[in-house]
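Annex B. Sample input.
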Amino acid sequence: MMKPANPASLTRRLVETAPEAIFIRTKDSFSYLNAAAARLFGVDGPEVLLGQPVLERFPPECREEIRERMRRLDEFGQPTVSDERIILRQDDSQVNTIISAVPFFYRDRQSVLVFARDITERKRAEAALEESERFAMNTLDSLSAHIAILDRAGTILAINRAWRRFWEENAGAGVTGVVGANYLAVCDAAVGAEAENARTFAAGMRSVLLGHEPEFSMEYPCHSATEERWFLGRVTRFIGDEPLRLVVEHENITRRKRVEDALRDSEAQFRAMFETASVGVAQSDPFTARLVRVNRKMSRITGYSAEELLQMTVEELVHPDDWPADQERRQRLMAGQAPEYRMEKRYLRKDGRHVWVSVNMTLIRDATGRPFRTVATVEEITERRKAEEERLRLSTALEQTAESIVITDLAGMILYVNPAFERISGYSRQEVIGHAPGLLKSGKQDAAFYQQLWATISRGDVWRGHFINKRKDGSIFEEEATISPVRNASGNVDHYMAIKLDVTREMALESQFRQAQKLEAIGQLAGGVAHDFNNILTSILLQVELSSMEENLTADLRDSFQQIRSDAERAASLTRQLLLFSRRQIMQSQDLDLNGVVTNLTKMLQRIIGEDVRLQLNLHPKPLMVHADAGMLDQVVMNLAVNARDAMPGGGRLAIETSEKIVDEAYAASHSEASPGRYVCLSVSDTGTGIPADVLPRIFEPFFTTKEPGKGTGLGLATVFGIVKQHRGWLTVESEVGSGTTFRVYIPAISIATKLAVAGSRPKPCGGTETILLTEDDAIVRMSFRKILAKKGYQVLEAANGQEALKVWAEHGASVALLLTDLVMPAGLNGRELARQIKTNKPDLKVVYISGYSAEIAGKEINLGPGEAFIQKPLGSDELLKTVRSCLDG
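Annex B, continued. Sample output.
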C-alpha cells in the first residue's frame, strides 16, 4: 500500500514535538495539548487534562479576570497579545509563563489556540539583575576601561576607578573629567592635537543623546610623552529610557592596534582570494556590528557598492523581523556559547527588494580572547526559499481551507485528508488513510450514481455532484463535491482530488424556507375564503335573530331558527380559526405575563385533558412579559393541550413549561424564522404516541388531520401556527414515535409590564333612544343592523359609504350620539378617516368600529381611543347591542 507524502503530517509532528507549550481550549475545557503543554502543567501526558476546565490551571485570585478574557475572546474573536500569567502545575506548584491566544475553528467548533512559554528562569534572571545593580559600581571599578555615566546635559554622574586614575594622571586631580563636571564642555574645550578628536567624540555623544543613533564609538590616538597610545571611545544609552543616562567608555586598545598592524601585512596575501570568492564574505565589528570588509559577491547580493556597505551596520542590511533572532545568535557567539552559527534570513537590497540568504558566521578573537571580528559567508537562496514557500502555502491552504479535501490514488485509496474532512466526517486521518471513501456511504445513493462518478473521472474529466454521506457517528450530512484528476509532469493522471463543501445546514434552511412558503400560500387562500364568509354569516345570524323575535312562531319554526343559528355560529368559529391561521385576525394586544396566562387556564385545562392525564407546570420564577392578544394566547395553550390529550388515549403526562431564551446570531442563522433578540418560550410536552417523520411537515396545514372522520377539524395546530406568526414568533416541534412530542412557542419578550385595568361585566343587551349613524357598504348587513337597533328603540340614520355618511352628518349631526361604521369601505373614505373628520366637529362622539377580514387591516392591531369600541364580524344581535350600549354609557 502506497504511503502518502503528506506535508501536513510534518506540521503535526512539529506541533507535537514543539518545545513551546501548545493547547486548544474549546468552550471552557482542554480539547488538545502537545507534549510540551503536558510537561508545563506537570502531568504524565496530554490525556490527563483533556476535557478538564482550563480555569483550574490558574490561581483562584485571577480566575474571574481570565474568565472575562475568555468570554471576550469567544465573542469578539480578537487575538490576545502576549500576557504574563502564573499557572498551577498538577502538584500545585506555580510557573511563570507568557501566554498568547488566537481564536480559530477546531473540529467544527469555535475554539482558541493557546501558546505558553515558561519564563520562570527569565524572572529569576530579572531578580538577579536587580540584585546585581547594587554592585554595579564595584563591577565598574574592577574594569580596566575608563567608564563614566552622564546625564542628559552631559554632566558626569559617576566614574569608575580607571577613569579617575586616568584623569588624575593626565589632567591634574580635581581639574577636569570628574563627577559634577560637564564632559561635553570638557571635550569642546580641548586644544592641541587632540582637539579635533575630542569635538568629534562630543558630537557623537550629542547624537546619542538626541536619539539619532543608538550608540557611538570611535578610535582615536592619545599619545603620552613616553609611548603611542590608542583608545576606543564608546557612547551608549544606559538601560531604560527615563531618566536618560549615557555610558561613556574609553578603552585602551594600543595592544590591539599593534596586532592589527601586524595583521595588515599578512592580509594582502588573502585579499585576492577574498575578493574572488563565489559566496559573499563580510567582516564586521562584533560590538557595533558595523561592516569593516566585504567582497564583490557581497555587493552583488545586496546591491550596494563596497564603499556603501562599509558605511553600514549588519542591522541595516538585515530585515527588521529577522534582526532580533540574528542579534540573539550574535550574543551567544560573543559569549562563547557557540563556536559559530548558521541562519537563514532576509537582506534588504538597495533597490528595496529583499533576498533570502544562508549565513554562516564565526567569531575571531584577539590574543587576549576578546572578540575582534565576526566573519560571515553569505549564500543567496532566494529561489530555493520561493519554492519552499510555495509548497508551504499550498500545504497551509489545504490544511486551513473550510472545504473537505480528499486525495486518493487511481484505485480510490485515500492518501490524504485535511482537518476539515476530519471535522466534518468525524473520522481521523489515521482511520481513513489507506481505505476507500466508501466508508462514508449512507446508502441513500444507488450504485448507478457511483458508477457514473467513476466513469467520469476515469476518462480524465471533472465530476461535479451532490453527496449524501454518513459521519462516523451515523448522522447524515450533505456535500457539494468536485472531483478532479491530478496529472503529473508527464501529463498522466496519477491521483484524484475531491473538494467537498458541507451544505447540510444550507439544505435544511432551504427545506424550512419551502415549508414556510407553502404555509404562507395556504394561509392566503384560507384568509380569502374566510373573508367572503364574514358578511354572509353576519347577515344569516342577524336575520335569524330578527325572525326569532317575531311573535306567534311555532315550536318547530323556533327550533329550526335555533338550528340555523347554531350552524352559523359553528361556521363563524371555523372562519375565525381560518383567520387566525392566515394571520388576518385583528389583534387587541396588551402587556401580559405568560405565567399568568397559563395559571389562569389551569383549572380549565385539567377538566379538558381528563383525570387520566397528569398536568405538570414548570413556570419560570419571574414574570415573562409579552405584548399579545390574551384571547389568542389562551387559544394557543388550549389547542396544544387538546392536541397533547388526543395523543395520549391511555393517559400520560402533560408538561407545560415557561422560560426565557436569548437568540443569538448563530441560532438565528440556522433557523430561518428566528431573529436575534430576547424571547419567552412556552413549551408543551406530552408522553403520547409521537408524530411520524413523514407526517411532521404537514401538521400546521389547515384541515390536515390524522384523526378519524368526525374526530377533528384539522384546524387546531393551524390556528396555533397563525397566532404565533401574527405575534412575530415561531414554533419548533420535536417528536419521536412512541416517545411523545414537544411543541415550543417563541414570542418576543418585553421589559416593562403595563398595569391593566380590569374590565367590569358588560351590560345585558338593552336598547335606548339615542340616534345612531350607521355606515355599512353591504346592504343586507346594513339592513339587519338597522332593524335590530330600531327594535330596541334607537333612531338609525343610514349611509352606504363614508361620503354618504358625511352628507347625513351635515344634516343631522347635532342629534347623532354614536357612529357605527365599518372600518373599510369603498369610495376612498374608511371608517377611521370618517370618524376623524366627524370628531373635528364633535370630539366627544362615541364610535363603534365593525370589520371582517380585509387586506388593508389584516393582522394589524386596533388602537382604540376614549369612547371607542370594536366588534369583529361575524356577530350576533346580543354582541351588537351590548357593545353599542356599553359605548354610549361610557
